[in-house]
Amino acid sequence: MHSFEMVDLLYVVEACRHDRVVGNFVSMAEGVEELRVLTGDFVSPDDVVANALSTVALARGCSVLFDEQAGAEIHFDVLTAKS
């Protein structure tokens, strides 16, 4: 298992954090992709990278979104529509 630098994990969590009506959350697909580019680690399994990121995101008070597809665009227009 690869050990990631805490500063890299914090940077990616802050860079990928979204502040929406539903609260702060971090997309794991986006975060995994960003951490791979930042560190050059394209070998570690996705679940190992997502686990490291989710631990930091949860400690920072963010919800974690485990999307299935890297680069997936999540639209929350339905959630922000007026009642």
Brief synopsis:
The protein is α+β, with helices and mostly antiparallel strands. 49% of the residues lie in helices and 14% in strands.
**In percent, how much strand structure appears in the residues?**
5-15%
Order of helices and strands: HEEHHEH
**What does the radius of gyration come to?**
13 Å
Strand order of the largest sheet: 1-2-3
Q: How can the largest sheet be summarized?
A: 3 strands, mixed
Q: Mean of the pLDDT scores?
A: 82
Please give the number of β-strands: 3
Compute the separation of the termini in Å: 47 Å
Weakly predicted, low-confidence segments:
none
- Globally, the shape reads globular
Number of helices: 4
The percent of residues in helical segments reads 40-55%
Q: What class do helices, strands and sheet pairing give?
A: alpha+beta
Structural commentary:
By secondary structure, this protein is α+β, with helices and mostly antiparallel strands. It has 4 helices and 3 strands, in the order H-E-E-H-H-E-H. It has helices at 6-16, 28-39, 46-59, 77-80; strands spanning 17-20, 23-27, 63-65. The N and C termini lie far apart (47 Å). The model has no long low-confidence stretch (mean pLDDT 82).
